[in-house]
Amino acid sequence: MPKFDIVIKGGTIIDGLRTPRFRGDIAIKDDKIVQIGGNIPVDDAGRVIDAAGKVVAPGVVDLHTHYDSQLFWDPWCTMSGWHGVTSVVIGNCGFGFAPVKPEDRERAMLSLTRNEAVPLETMREGMPWDWVTFKEYLESVERTPKGVNVMSFVPLAPLYGYVVGTDEAKKRQATEEELQQMCDLLVEGMEVGGCGISAQILGIEGNVQLDFDGTPMVTDLMSERDLKAFSRAMGSTGRGVSQVTGNMEFAETMARESGRPVIWNALMADGALNQHGGATMTAQTAIDRLNVLNQEEGLRVYAQAQTVNFGSQFTFEDYNLLDAVPVWKEACMGTIAEKMVKLADPERRAGMKQNLAERNGLFGSGYVLDLIKVGWIPLDVPNGLELQRTYEGYTIGEIAARENKHPIDVLLDIALWGELKSGFETEMIMTPPESMRLVVNSPMALPGISDGGAHTKFITTGRFPTELLGYWIREHDLMSLEDAHWRLSAYPAQAAGLKGRGFIAEDMAADIIIYDPETVDAGPQERVWDYPANEWRLIQKAVGYHYIIVNGEITFIDGECTQATPGKLLRHGTA
Prior knowledge:
The protein is α/β, with parallel strands linked by helices. It contains 18 helices and 25 strands.
């Protein structure tokens, strides 16, 4: 047997600890880094990687994903796995699939169809459903071949579903006995490896992430009593971290009651947008408050920061990122046939035109309607080929001027002619570099919000590590690579309590990326039909990553998957 499985020779090592970069070699045996230095002999190595001129850095830790179902059919959790991510955290926003009683499985899947836009038939076909409890879910994840490491929050929505019933919990407050039972299940989840609790608390008005029937998610309606009880229950274990999507005040409450860190979503640069729209406070106001919480009040609150420029593709067949606007939400609920009737209704269109004028933009994100492009029209509709020739590639504004029609009528007519399968592409909302500089360099910022596994027909934010390294650093010099890799790896690992990972050192897990800083970039958006039940998704692959290594095994070489599945279930509190 060779002394080393892999020796990485002559790379520029950026260790994730803000240590100044240095040129050296790294030796790997089994799943560990066993030696770092110069002139490590290669005559007793199973494989030698020439990393001259390349950066050798720790694998990225992606804290905000929704791969809870996708990991069962996609071991590498792509897009994340393509973009240098070697560890993901699932169970975010309070959403997940355990504990779930067998008779409630369909309801659990329905909950994820609108708010996170995971296709129902894909989940039905792709998930093994060989669990009831959270412990059994983790055991299923552990059995499943994985190309990345996986750690999970204990999401709060399934606790309500299991104990009270999802729909019942929306009608009434849990009894004291039910609340105690949920807290007990939470602690049980922590004891078997959950890393903490998570919740989305967006309320009723302006909520863009709703249940399948258009009602708020169960955690959106959570009382202060329940939030405090859950936080105290987690705190009673003496470890763990909370994640919350909502107002920063909820993060403060969770940190205060639990005595544990909280990851708050989301810190956004001024001028940036996402599916929720713009930020509810300026970036500087949020940063100032975070500094006070951490430095003066003793509350450890991190901020997951959106660090990608935002654009979207959509069809009216299943688009949910307009739910914050009542006139659009109402029209886009129901079956395909029902939606087609409503979207053709002149009175509803009049309301949409008025809303467009009042908001000076489309949907919650405020897109400039005239700049939205017709991306595709299906061929299998009446006059499909002629419609493609007439409209594909043109903007709504160009067509409206050409046909002397209101842009809303253009948009909806093309949608209807395509039987709601016509695709539209928004412009990319480019965040001002100086605004992004403030956010990514702020003390508590954790770059990301990949949302991997969610909204896969609409957005491709899983590219965030590549965009940070390529666009923001190479093109705009927002920070050093030393700072970037600390924020991409060691800092999020610390925030989540992820032991033994996040930086390069001897005896650490061999999660390593080797890339060319001059070429690393995200590829073009493309649609691929690679989901169970022949569903499609929108993706962006990566270029410039020469090797991605997980637990000492190579998973990707120049973007090509090796089919290796060395990923592990990471149980919180253990190495």
